[in-house]
Amino acid sequence: MTSTLVETEDRREYRATRRRGLAVDLSMTLATVLAALAVGFLVILATGKDPVAAYEALLTGPLERSFRVGRWLEDATTLTLLGLSVAIPFRARQISLGAESQLYAGALAAAVVAIFLPLPPVAAVIVPLVAAAAAGAGMGFVPGSMKARLGANEIVATLMLNAIVVRVYDYLVNGPLKEPGSSAVYSERVQPDSVLTPLTDWFGIPLGRSNVGLVLMLLTAAALWLLITRTPLGYRIRMTGANSDFAEYGGIRVPRAIEWSFVIGGAVAGLAGAHLVQGVYGRLEPGLAGSLAFEGIVVALLARNNPLVVVIAGLFYSYLRAGGDIMEQQTDVGTEIVVVIQAVIVLLVTAQALPDLLKRRIARKQAAHKQVGAR
Amino acid sequence: MAGIEGNGQSELAEILAGLRSPTSGTIHVGGTVTAGLGVVGHRRAGVGYVPEDRLRNGAALDESIADNLVVDRHDRPPLARRGVLRPKAVRAHAEQLIDQYAIRTPDPSVPMRALSGGNMQKVIVARELSAGPRLLIASQVTRGVDVGAMRFMYERLVAARDNGAAVLLISADLTELLALSDRLLVLKDGLLVGRFDDTTGLTEKHVGLYMLGVEHHDDEHLTAGLAAGEEPTP
Question: Residue A182: what are its φ and ψ, rounded to 5°?
């Protein structure tokens, strides 16, 4: 009977319950991370290696040198943008796996504009970004409208589109867009004016390939949060995800809300592609995104699709990635341990088991308390 | 509107609310032809609908009361201005309806799931009635609702009628229909089989005979008073 308990609370009690719920959530997240680290620790121990040295490298490594911080931030920027790009369709309860195709479409668009189109200084940065967002949005629109108008399964549609776009990308990088006269497979560099300013130039310390894309990412997250919580479109996306029958009954055009969620997500993934081209690599390279597109899904799940939390989850997840690389270089423990840690976290968080259990216990204890008081 | 469940009441309600399109026939609501207008068109024409299964499409259970109260008006002033949804206005709107409709909750941000059946139904009725409908379709309003909330619903429905709204009450509860209705219609196998323009002195047993198909009124009686060419029901 916990469900009807809330009704009988007064406002002060309710607020207290809600605050406590938040505290439980936060501390449980922390406990989840610690539990995952403990599991990783045991696994290293079981393989007969030195877990203390490995963890030292994993947890403090990324902060030890400034260029490592840069490596972390650069990775976090791409990863967070990709997490944001799927969090929006997830909000409409659409399982979009299309971040990969949207990213590559965005990367291509940004590269073509930034390499071949002569533009004045500021426009040279902005126009490729816009082109990338538009290309990503277009790549999101295809599966979005297939799902919304034709009833196609969005998982299949996005996955198939990924397969196609990645092949097209590979072809273009190996063929028409390959730098003439070069034996290695990559495109020409983007024009100097189109480069996203490296953070090194700002802070005067070497920060690797991290760049103002970081700021762009933070702004995007804030904008998406506003979109979801402060606009009618965001409301429609939320209600469509919460209960599409209800949304339809209330007069919301559900197919359109679904389409928009894909288009917006696609645009953000396109920006991630532009960040890689204009900021990180400065040109098109094969396999630009690595496995980041799918890790973006994990980040969105961890953050329960809240754009602001996605930033935190993205930064955290990238930190583990960066630390894992350093751990592999400095000790004899491989990055697989990081995968174990990540997997345990994902399992615990998505299962939501711990916090719910704790909250229910607290509620029960309080109810018992009340009854005793009444007597 | 009486009838044994599954004789076309749900379909009729959904057609009238714009959730289904009719295969034939026309529907007028106060001079607007609504057939084929979609949900938004129906709502604009002044049709309110309390759905029979509130858990399916009457509410978004994981969303707040405040968000559930604005589904049909979230894109209009005062809730939204210049493309921006104003959380303060949404909250104030919710506070006002919670007060007016005696919804029992500590806060508008409580998710619908935490409410009891009667309380949840109050939220839905509050939303539909506060839109000021010309026609309110109320399907099984008191199903799974406690006695207090039931009385409350009855009062609100009668008050809505007194304010000039047409209320189409669809119910499986004959006592409720006989107590509230000004006119009673009976559906059987998707067809109108009974019409009682005066419900005083009408007994459950008598109406029951029509519901079971033992008796039925002839067409002349069913369509009396309607303009030529108009069909009574789908």
Answer: -105, 145
